[in-house]
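W.,

You were right to be curious about this one. When I first looked at the sequence I had no strong expectations either way, so I just let the prediction run and decided to look at it fresh. Below is the sequence, 472 residues in total, followed by the output.
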Amino acid sequence: MTEAIAAADTAWILAACAAVGIMVPGLAMFYGGMVSIKNTLNMAMMTFGAFALVGVLWIIFGYSATLGDSIGGIGLLGNPFEYFGSSELLAAPAEPGLPPALVAGFQLLFAAITVALISGAVADRMKFGAWMLFAGVWATLVYFPVAHWVFAFDSADGSVLGGWIANKLGAIDFAGGTAVHMNAGVAALALVLVLGKRGTFPNPPRPHSLPLTMLGSGILFFGWFGFNGGSALAAGNGAGVVVLNTIAAACAGICAWLLVEKLRQGHATSLGASSGLIAALVGITPACGAVSPVGALIVGAASGAICCLAVSMKFRLGIDDSLDVVGIHLVGGIIGTLLIGFLAVPEAPNEAAGLFYGGGVDVLWRQTVAVIAVFAYTFVVTIVIAKVLDMVMGLRVPAEHEADGLDAVIHGESAWVMETATLTAVAATPAAAVAAAEAITAEAVAADAAEEPKADAEKTEEKEEETAKPAG
């Protein structure tokens, strides 16, 4: 790689890092608009809190546990002490290439957003302190190991060994269908089962600001270009293909969700458009480097349609997944990961052939094993974490706090100022009305009397000026 190409790649990943960073407030808006007006800030705080805490853990040992040399070479976890504190990432690479610090920052955002996604499932009822502790423990015991499985590749010279899914199994996950979306969705399911339903379920509060949710989904869409395109780790043709596939899937997902919604409920809604967009982006995340643009349309449409049906199942199953994290991220992540086994084309950046393109079931069985492994590990460990935290400190706020809203009870704030001005009416008697009229008349007479001397003086001056003028 030449220095010029390395500089171009670095510039692209810097831009992608900024795009992914803006997904943090985007997610806060997306979730914040979907809850009641009493819990908007709590949702934003859960997002920002997870981002902050996971970022700290990432700098200390998370990067090393995720992208460090695999302990024992078995591909389960990177050595958390190899880059402890991240100080060794300061040096520039010996050969032209991406700065290690930039890669670390990019992947930090992936870790933080994955944890923040889970919060949507427990909206309106989880203690903020319990959420923060859960976020830190879950990132350590679940995200870092699973991300190592999926994102850590063996070095070219074999001196550094990565995760078992990426290297031994050889499953395809371009930007995090399993490590990010499935992972968050499975964790959301497990946590909801321990936490229990809201007091208002199955008739939860309506979203208080759908425009805020649509704005949040649009910001997330923008960020997804960095999320998927940046995962190419180069400013080349691969990134271009990934971005095109991301856009194609997003368009198809919106259309599919709205069509299903219209057929089932008689209305195509703004919430449906936002949800269809996110469902499609989730589905294309693992597949964006493996399919053609037509394949991306299929992935997006399948994700939008199936996730639309999936989110309604929570009422039948009695699972209070508040903001549809399970129905969108778990289901969408599985759809995108498995469809690679059918739709992968060798011309795409991943250079794999799926069942429909002459590759047989080779890719499909690998994708299936990856899905099963991530589901099983994440579900079991998350259940254990949630149970232990519930016994130690309790996960759930009291019922009265849930009814009052978490913004005021936990954070001492409100998202919107709802105060109104109060006008005090004074009853007027006939005598008061007459007195007021007389006062107005008296003021007018006094004003006229004050003006008369001025007018007379002005007329006198005009006559004197006329007399003083020379004749003819």
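Here's what jumped out at me. The chain has 17 helices and no strands. And, maybe more interesting for your project: The mean pLDDT is 93.

Coffee later to discuss?

I.
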